[in-house]
Amino acid sequence: MALVEPVPGAPAAVADCGAERALVVADYHAGIEAGLRYERGVELRSDADGRRARLCALRDRVSPDRVVVVGDLVHRIGDPGEGERDEVERLLDALAVPLTLVPGNHDGGVADAYDRIEVADAGGLRLGDVGFVHGHTWPDRAVLGAETVCMGHEHPQVRLEDAVGGGRTEKAWLRGRLRLEPFADHFEVAPESLGWGDSELVVFPAFNDRSGGTWINVDGQTFLSPFLPDGLADDAEAYLLDGTRLGAYRRV
């Protein structure tokens, strides 16, 4: 059985971290509605209660020892605003299990704002044979040497079209072999000196339903991470949340 298994029908996975079992999500983006109002002038009613209820339902479903958020727990870059603080405090109260955050590009003020959150180093976190990174920067070598590496940041989505031209966009998982060469170039070492095996990279869909995403099967779309797509094998596959296997993501 794989170390990281998606929860059917949800943008979340269960990770076997050796001594612990973790519920893993990426890109929660608490307070996104306030951000959209400020950034784009879009008025949306807060879905804080809905996000919290969905995550707590997943906790009840899989009974984890902890929750790991693979970056962007909050939406506002810098010091969290009042709305975000309230949403996160309510979430922590409701979860009643430890929450570990691998900080993303939106989480700069989290460590100072919440003393109940275990905040990892910016280069990522390794628990047993599972590594966790957000993906907006180059991760630490030790994290990338894990058997399975989980990342967020991209919010992968696929655009699906039917025979008459109708289409829809759905969240997707990306899973494939981690390619050594781009990381060896970054660290300025020979690939064989990294000492890694055939690590698997799992790119998580965004937990937040309002955060948009990268269309991984549409020409002209570019990845956000500095190590994608080069760091992911060409035969990496895409999956829908319900487990539907779409095949190699480049050919979906």
TrEMBL record:
Any one Gene Ontology molecular-function term assigned to this protein's record: hydrolase activity
Domain annotation Calcineurin-like phosphoesterase: ranges: 21-136
Identification of the protein by name: Phosphoesterase
Organism: Haloplanus rubicundus
